[in-house]
Specification:
Number of strands of chain A: 0
CATH topology of the largest domain in chain A: Rna Polymerase Sigma Factor, Chain: A
Shape of chain B: elongated
Number of helices of chain A: 9
Order of helices and strands of chain B: HHHH
Number of domains of chain B: 1
Structural class of chain A: mainly alpha
Largest sheet of chain B: none
Largest sheet of chain A: none
Number of helices of chain B: 4
Strand content of chain B: under 5%
CATH architecture of the largest domain in chain A: Orthogonal Bundle
Shape of chain A: globular
Oligomer: heterodimer
Chain lengths: 184, 118
Amino acid sequence: MEEPIANDRHVLASARDGSEEAGRRLMADHGPSMLRVAWHVLGSYGGNDAEDAVQEAFIAALTTEALPRGDVGAWLRSITARKALDALRGVRRRLERPFPGPGAAEAELPAATGSGTSIETLAVREALARLSPSDRAVLVLVDLEGRSMAEAAEALGTTNVGTRLRAVRARRKLAKLLRGGEAS
Amino acid sequence: MSNEPIAGKAMRAAERGASADASRLVAAVPALMHEAQRRRAAMTAASPALAQLATWALPRFAAATAMAVIAATSFVMWERESATTTSASFESVILGGDADRSDDAVIDDLLDLEGNDG
């Protein structure tokens, strides 16, 4: 019988100690939000790549000795964003092809273009797909997750100033794309 | 006008219609935990090997660096000393005028030319 788990930190610690119940609970509680983060960074809303990134993030969270300073879920999502970026860079290196361009979001995801997905949603995905994965990763952490620039920079292994500049440029570009303009 | 809220709204809109079903991820947890355990064991095994390598390499690097510093310092000191000697010879030739030849071939040639012109 496993001892009762008080909160996320204890769940994480128990999972590291080998408790499968704790591991399952951690994944059940945070897996969906980690998946969403992976979707945004990868620019594909469904499919196996996002699950792969979440799995890598989960393994990394259990492998490291470090404990998150704050919210465990936010920490897991930051790792997921980084892993998704790493996955895209790895694919680019291996295949020597550019990141998914405009239209990739729909092309890769027949399931996402089903009846539940509106034209408006597809248009937004198309606009997001035109941003670089690094741009999307910053926007996910800062604008969707509400992390500070410093936290996003730390999670993505970049500088504070670089992250701030990237966020400003990405927001402008996205706003222009959503208004129907062609972002440069 | 700030564009800050646009990105968050756009991302929430982009999520619509996609199902964040974590059931497959939850089912994969035992395998993921096994993999995490394997990586931790590999890291633990790699640490002593790394420490052994560092024990062997660091003193050698330190000795090599010290020798390089000594060699560089000696070279700089020697260079400065040569420059001072050359300067002294030059001054003695120009100001003193009591030496027929300096140690510098260029200066000697210049002095020869001046002598021929004058």
